[in-house]
């Protein structure tokens, strides 16, 4: 059984915050505004996984009205989503992400992002693809006002866990 999900998120640039993207701190004059660390890429990934599972979105599970999530590391949110995925016997097949921003250039950070996301998703790095593009100076991303991210995920039924659960029920 396969399930496909798509996630999308945006955050505005602001002064006075750290810029965290894909779990990596990036040296830049602006950070992203949000209730958590505002990691737009990880939020899109969480939404893609939750969507594939039919479990709503990141706001449903980690509302910005809950002080428990104020400033939280989005890697913790992703690991929590992965736990939810595993609880219903799915595993990540592959993940393809696109980050849209004019600045800064992200190429030097992509490999580290891939490694962190793969680790948190419990898959090999080869199952994770992250790319960045500009919007040719068009729209809010082109004007440097913020960043957008898309994520598409393929989830596979984890038959090993399903078989183990069936065996436990039979015994």
UniProtKB/TrEMBL annotation:
Coiled coil: none annotated. Residues 2-155 form the 2-C-methyl-D-erythritol 2,4-cyclodiphosphate synthase domain. Pathway: Isoprenoid biosynthesis; isopentenyl diphosphate biosynthesis via DXP pathway; isopentenyl diphosphate from 1-deoxy-D-xylulose 5-phosphate: step 4/6. SUPFAM superfamilies: IpsF-like. One of its GO terms (molecular function) is 2-C-methyl-D-erythritol 2,4-cyclodiphosphate synthase activity. A divalent metal cation binds at residues 9, 11, 43. It catalyses: 4-CDP-2-C-methyl-D-erythritol 2-phosphate = 2-C-methyl-D-erythritol 2,4-cyclic diphosphate + CMP. Binds 1 divalent metal cation per subunit. 4-CDP-2-C-methyl-D-erythritol 2-phosphate binds at residues 9-11, 35-36, 57-59, 62-66, 133-136, 140, 143. Keywords: Isoprene biosynthesis, Lyase, Metal-binding. Its EC number is 4.6.1.12. Its cofactor is a divalent metal cation. One of its GO terms (biological process) is isopentenyl diphosphate biosynthetic process, methylerythritol 4-phosphate pathway. The record marks 35, 134 as: Transition state stabilizer. Pfam families: YgbB. Homotrimer. NCBIfam families: ispF. Involved in the biosynthesis of isopentenyl diphosphate (IPP) and dimethylallyl diphosphate (DMAPP), two major building blocks of isoprenoid compounds. Catalyzes the conversion of 4-diphosphocytidyl-2-C-methyl-D-erythritol 2-phosphate (CDP-ME2P) to 2-C-methyl-D-erythritol 2,4-cyclodiphosphate (ME-CPP) with a corresponding release of cytidine 5-monophosphate (CMP). Belongs to the IspF family. This is 2-C-methyl-D-erythritol 2,4-cyclodiphosphate synthase.
């Amino acid at each position: 059984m396969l399930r496909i999900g798509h996630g999308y998120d945006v955050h505005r640039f602001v002064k006075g915050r750290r810029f965290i993207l894909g779990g990596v701190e990036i040296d830049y004059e602006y950070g992203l505004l949000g209730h958590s660390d505002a990691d737009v890429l990880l939020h899109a990934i969480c939404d893609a996984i939750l969507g594939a599972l039919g479990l709503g979105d990141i706001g449903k599970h980690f509302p910005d009205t809950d002080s428990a999530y104020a400033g939280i590391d989005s890697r913790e949110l992703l690991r929590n989503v992965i736990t939810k995925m595993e609880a219903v016997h799915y595993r990540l097949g592959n993940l393809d992400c696109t980050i849209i921003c004019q600045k800064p250039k992200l190429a030097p950070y992509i490999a580290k992002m891939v490694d962190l996301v793969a680790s948190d998703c419990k898959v090999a790095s080869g199952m994770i693809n992250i790319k960045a593009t500009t919007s040719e100076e068009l729209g809010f991303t082109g004007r440097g006002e913020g960043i957008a991210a898309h994520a598409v995920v393929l989830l596979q039924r984890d038959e090993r866990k399903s078989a183990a659960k069936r065996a436990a029920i039979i015994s």
